[in-house]
Design brief:
2 copies of one chain form a homodimer. Chain A is mainly alpha-helical. Chain A contains 19 helices and 2 strands. In chain A, helix 1 crosses helix 11 and helix 3 packs across helix 6. The interface between A and B is large, with 38 and 38 residues.
Amino acid sequence: MDFIRIDFIIIITFCIKGNIMTSFELFNHISEELDQVEEQLINNVQSDLSILENASTHLVKAGGKRLRPAFALLSAKIFSPSVQDVIPLATALELIHMASLVHDDVIDNSSLRRGRETVKSAWGNRMSIYAGNFVFARAILLAESYHRSDIVDVLADASMRICEGEIQQMVSCYDTQQGLKDYLHRIERKTALLIAVSCQLGAMVMNAETREITALKRYGYYLGMAFQITDDILDFTASEEVLGKPVGSDIRQGVITLPSIYAIKFDQRGQELKTLLASPESCAERAEEIIDIIISSDGIEYAYQVTKKYADLAIRQLQFLPDVSVRKALADMACFISGRDF
Amino acid sequence: MDFIRIDFIIIITFCIKGNIMTSFELFNHISEELDQVEEQLINNVQSDLSILENASTHLVKAGGKRLRPAFALLSAKIFSPSVQDVIPLATALELIHMASLVHDDVIDNSSLRRGRETVKSAWGNRMSIYAGNFVFARAILLAESYHRSDIVDVLADASMRICEGEIQQMVSCYDTQQGLKDYLHRIERKTALLIAVSCQLGAMVMNAETREITALKRYGYYLGMAFQITDDILDFTASEEVLGKPVGSDIRQGVITLPSIYAIKFDQRGQELKTLLASPESCAERAEEIIDIIISSDGIEYAYQVTKKYADLAIRQLQFLPDVSVRKALADMACFISGRDF
């Protein structure tokens, strides 16, 4: 069991590092387009107000894996090698993600995000709220440039659901009664939805057929679920250097994720863990102890199995798509996230 | 001079009270539609997540003057007695305004807004941020229901400018170097723009001609400027009961408005005032003293004159519109806000 866990930790550690991910050539199909998205991100946070532009540019330059643009571009590439039309959408998707991150910074009191100072720590809470709002409104303007109601509809609706997911996370802190279903529902809104929408909209911009759009939306949904569970596992197992944020930050903030839910229910120290996780004080002060209990339970392995199941479901959706080389890249992404083939 | 000021304070006191305003029958033309907007506001903040729905409903029920819906409806009524089509837009405009208020609450540490507890004081900072984002995304969805890119474009662009105005206000706190131009530029973005857009979009939904849309947009802009200056005057002169928020809250937070800018420059105690306003400590602890200096200067009268000028400019735009009875109501609004005829 230990062997599997260590092996998995190494795999996932590779997984989360954006640069290593791209060095695995998963994004080779879209590297030029991703460079263009990077350029567009900078162009789209310009403002007459230099303090706002600086804060937003800081946000862009903090980097990130650009997963949402990548999924939109890869999904579009299923249908045509030329996906220039998807650049504004891909940019908008990353801006929406960035807006949620910068608002999250206000809330979490995080001082580090992706290894750099956050907008909040550099400019204060107020700037973070406004920079997030500014960047979100810009995303809507970009999406509107397609003159297609269906695109803005999907994005605005997803944005509402993301808010709901954030609130669900907030109200479920220190709630040790929550079960698997609560957790899955929460990460669905918090993460999977925007990845699903990225795939869906990439196909929609290319005017794909309804069944293909649905398949890609589902692929994105399942992959997003796998991605978030992996992310939650890494909060226990990765190093701060790999993670780009402090290890155990979920526990410290009372965010109860899948490994904890499993360990509470099935580990022999479950009751002890439950008591610790229900208390903000012990979460803050005894985080290492809590993490040790979870690491030594089967919670991490269980979460890994769930990740793998979602990755399988994602891959299964690909059968409804044309058999082009980029379809293989989408399958590789799912394998990569679930750590299956490495 | 004292007589004029007292007279003006009474007028403005009437002005700001939403209920009294409607009892002046300014909104008679659109009272039924405003009731529908009220209903739609409640309908549009529904969520599966009861805590989010409660927070958003609380926000709706806190009331407000519904000025932006009123301006959209009145502008539309210039062109047809039947303005049912404008209800979703009017609702979206109020939701955008509400989103900016709820985010403002986080920032200002206000515990009272319109005489009721704020979402923040009832549910905490995090809920305020998410409720604001949720309500804003809903507004975009509503605006999208027209399937018209120009409408969403105008709203998203205005939302970006509103953020800029909020940031300008933030960075100009305690800045006693700012002049009239800085102030006007800031309130233009913070307030006038959304009122301008309300009038503009009301006309656009009714497919008015370009010159009519422009006239209404300008009317809204000038009226919005007059409205914000009035609001800034009232922060010195009105009672907490009338204002629905603590008197002198601008001063306490270092927000320097037109009466202060005038008094710093022209009053004999200008230098003393400048020193007081530049210090967060004296703004917080010696607010009454600061308010007394400004009240006894000509700053209030000067601001009133500027309000009057903007109201005149607003009224002048009305000549480009059909001479229907609702046009008179728009003129009355401007007179009312500048306190001219009362």
